[in-house]
Structure to design on (608 residues):
């Protein structure tokens, strides 16, 4: 047990940093409120003269879009202000400390990310409860849908963790990852359905997207929640999500080893 | 041996790409990059006994930090071997991490957005230090470094002196027998520097820690180090006590005496040359490589002659090290010329 808990306080790094910076929390609250209001208004406006589009009713589309905004908070914390991005550690040379502690860097990274995602989850849950109470989002159709959604969301966040990790691992080889980060954030938002549900895109785009891990992060769980993916089809989607978890876990494990070799050949 | 450092024939070569000058050169470098080998550390051998403080000195780019990185396990040597507290650091990095504390003066290991005490708590958890032990050590460090006056402040708001004191405490909270300090007091004011020196002295003398220190601050070396290892161009130039180094390179001391009897016949003493003699005034200096230390010379002069007054001009360590660097540069140039 002690071994499992070893280094658990690393999970507190980002949430504590946020709690010690009230202006940042105020900014998140404001940004989230504005985004939810605008997104809900936009989708209601788009559906003003139509019934069902791309297989989604107005309420389904608004629910999907608002939940996408809330879910995007899960990993969008301001690490740069806390000088805690891998990019910054590489730049300032403080990455050496990750290799000078009796806690493997990959474990430290995972614990830190877990803390971030739990903290982001608190925000997302708070926003969800408010939006549900205000009637902005619809509740899930049944307890079964809610249960499958939770499992799918968990797997989606796991995939997202690995996607972010790949980006951070890039820093070990390129020192900078700004451009890659911009491309990835755009791709992640577009292909996961944050900008708009993937069901609105042409078939070729949906096919292309199915070969990438992004839709497994958000589009799949949200589509299950709003009922666009039926429970009968959800099993396949969960298997695909789990497969992405396995593939990305193996890939990032391999990259961690190469990153460590790079650090110890360059001396940080 | 617990706490000792053994370095045998340690070498590290980096392979870098040389960029050719000009546009055409840059294009050629792109298509056909030219790799060159840079020997950052070459065949360095030394040891540090448990409970000893050794200053690893050398000009910028001499290979000090590369050596420290190999000893901390974050860099693998190209050749040679190192053992830190009985562990080969680059082979058992995590085991080595429990035995060492490290401060890189310019880089902090603390979390920028968190109060110092939170950083300490995270490190306690990472190093699995029992709570009571952690609290006792924190109390001890607070008494020496006055940490409690700022440990609830976020790291981003600390002054450099406060930050380095916190980093020192962070590096030692898990009670490592070996400590590596890479220019820990760089940029700090004299008051804080003295506080840090006092802390280090306490850690060596009272806690028996082995410390390997790199610094450009000769006052620090003088106050703390028992022994000095000087490296230049990656090679070990000198390994000895401060007295030995002074003897070898610090040949500028002079003892000026006023003789009680101006007619005394004055001459050279073993290892001591008479430089000038006018009336009652006589000036002595070191003579040859076996010259005594300034303190021994003083004793000899007083024992031999009756003096009414004396003055001492001693080259400070900075002058001595400058002379050592210049000597090392000249030797390196000579070796390079012979090689060519």
């Amino acid at each position: 047990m002690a071994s499992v808990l070893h280094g658990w306080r690393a999970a507190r790094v980002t949430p504590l940093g946020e709690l010690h910076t009230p202006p940042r929390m105020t900014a998140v609250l404001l940004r989230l409120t504005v985004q939810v209001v605008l997104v809900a208004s936009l989708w209601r406006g788009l559906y003003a003269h139509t019934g069902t589009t791309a297989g989604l009713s107005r309420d389904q589309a608004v629910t999907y879009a608002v939940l996408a905004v809330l879910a995007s908070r899960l990993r969008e914390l301001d690490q740069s202000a806390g000088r805690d991005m891998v990019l910054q550690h590489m730049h300032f040379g403080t990455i050496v400390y990750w290799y000078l502690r009796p806690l493997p860097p990959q474990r430290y990274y995972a614990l830190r990310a877990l803390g971030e995602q739990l903290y982001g989850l608190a925000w997302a849950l708070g926003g969800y409860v408010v939006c549900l109470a205000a009637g902005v989002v619809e509740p899930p159709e049944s307890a079964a849908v809610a249960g499958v959604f939770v499992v799918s969301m968990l797997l989606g966040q796991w995939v997202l963790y690995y996607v972010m990790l790949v980006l951070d691992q890039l820093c070990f080889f390129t020192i900078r990852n700004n451009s890659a980060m911009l491309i990835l954030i755009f791709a992640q938002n577009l292909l996961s359905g944050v900008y708009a549900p993937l069901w609105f895109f042409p078939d070729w785009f949906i096919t292309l997207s199915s070969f990438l891990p992004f839709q497994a992060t958000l589009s799949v769980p949200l589509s299950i929640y709003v009922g666009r993916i039926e429970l009968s089809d959800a099993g396949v989607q969960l298997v695909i999500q789990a497969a992405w978890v396995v593939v990305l876990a193996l890939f990032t494990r391999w990259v961690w080893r190469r990153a460590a070799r790079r650090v110890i050949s360059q001396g940080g | 041996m617990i706490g000792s450092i053994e370095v045998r024939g340690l070498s590290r070569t980096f392979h870098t790409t040389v960029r050719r000058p000009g546009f055409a050169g840059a294009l050629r470098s792109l298509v056909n990059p030219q790799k060159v080998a840079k020997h950052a550390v070459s065949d360095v051998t030394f040891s540090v006994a448990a409970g000893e403080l050794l200053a690893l000195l050398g000009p910028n780019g001499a290979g000090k930090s590369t050596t420290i990185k190999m000893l901390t396990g974050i860099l693998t040597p190209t050749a040679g071997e190192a053992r830190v507290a009985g562990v080969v650091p680059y082979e058992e990095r995590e085991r080595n991490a429990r035995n060492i504390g490290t401060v890189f003066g310019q880089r902090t290991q603390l979390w920028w957005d968190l109060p110092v005490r939170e950083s300490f708590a995270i490190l306690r958890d990472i190093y699995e230090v029992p709570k009571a032990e952690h609290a006792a050590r924190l109390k001890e460090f607070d008494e020496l470094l006055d940490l409690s006056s700022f440990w609830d402040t976020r790291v981003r708001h600390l002054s450099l002196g406060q930050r380095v004191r916190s980093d020192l405490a962070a590096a030692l909270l898990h009670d490592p027998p070996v400590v590596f300090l890479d220019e820990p007091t760089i940029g700090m004011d004299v008051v804080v520097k003295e506080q840090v020196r006092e802390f280090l002295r306490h850690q060596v003398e009272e806690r028996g820690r082995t410390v390997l220190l790199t610094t450009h601050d000769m006052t620090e070396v003088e106050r703390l180090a028992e022994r000095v290892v000087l490296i230049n161009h990656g090679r070990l130039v000198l390994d000895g006590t401060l007295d030995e180094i002074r003897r070898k390179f610090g040949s500028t001391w002079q003892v000026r005496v006023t003789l009680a009897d101006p007619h005394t016949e004055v001459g050279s003493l073993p290892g001591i040359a008479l430089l000038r003699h006018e009336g009652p005034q006589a000036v002595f200096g070191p003579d040859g490589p076996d010259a005594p230390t300034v303190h021994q010379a003083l004793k000899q002069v007083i024992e031999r002659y009756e003096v009414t007054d004396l003055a001492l001009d001693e080259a400070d360590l900075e002058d001595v090290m400058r002379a050592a660097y210049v000597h090392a540069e000249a030797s390196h140039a000579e070796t390079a010329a012979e090689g060519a």
User: Anything to note?
Assistant: Chain A is about 70% helix and 0% strand. The CA atoms of residues 148 and 235 of chain A lie 9 Å apart. The longest helix of chain A spans residues 231-266. The mean pLDDT of chain A is 86.
